[in-house]
Specification:
By secondary structure, the protein is of the alpha/beta class. Helices cover 46% and strands 18% of the residues. Helix 1 runs parallel beside helix 2 and helix 3 packs parallel to helix 4. The two termini are 23 Å apart.
Length: 158
């Protein structure tokens, strides 16, 4: 069996029935990971905050283009605006994805820092939001989606 760091890589899910959720999808690294998941045959759900809705639509269109070049006949790309600064937002995102019947096998919790200013120049409120999204939301998403992954017997979190 092919192994990497003690993990059997032969036990991979059938990507045609599995989905990848990529949060912070408008960030360059997350955008690239969404594309890679699509190229590997996973359905892709891209998500970001409401202030990035137009950018998110562009990312979804790019992923759809990749999907079309890879071949699946059915549409397997969704974009969803999410507010990850509250537990209600996390639970709403999770419930929405479950209502679509999507089995998230890969979670890419790719949040980003909106502000590029020096940390000493940022208001404390902005720092609180940064920590809320990048730490608390990531932990919440892991808890929600890891439970589903356990039920389905497979999953990866990046």
């Amino acid at each position: 069996a092919v192994r990497a760091e003690g993990h059997d890589l032969k036990i991979l899910p059938n990507p045609e029935t599995r989905w990848a959720l990529v949060t912070g999808a408008t960030a360059p690294v997350s955008r690239r990971l969404a594309r890679l998941c699509c190229e590997r045959g996973f359905g892709v759900i891209v998500s970001d905050g409401g202030h990035r809705q137009s950018e998110l639509a562009i990312v979804a269109a790019e992923i759809r283009s990749v999907q079309e070049s890879c071949g699946p006949a059915e549409q397997r790309v969704y974009a969803v605006v999410s507010d990850l600064q509250s537990s209600n937002g996390l639970e709403s995102l999770h419930a929405t994805i479950k209502s679509w019947g999507c089995n998230v096998a890969v979670l890419v919790a790719g949040h980003q820092m909106d502000e590029t200013d020096c940390i000493l120049q940022q208001p404390c409120e902005d720092l609180y939001k940064l920590i809320s999204v990048n730490v608390t939301a990531t932990a919440g998403l892991c808890r929600l989606f890891a439970a589903d992954m356990k039920v389905h017997g497979w999953g990866r979190i990046l």
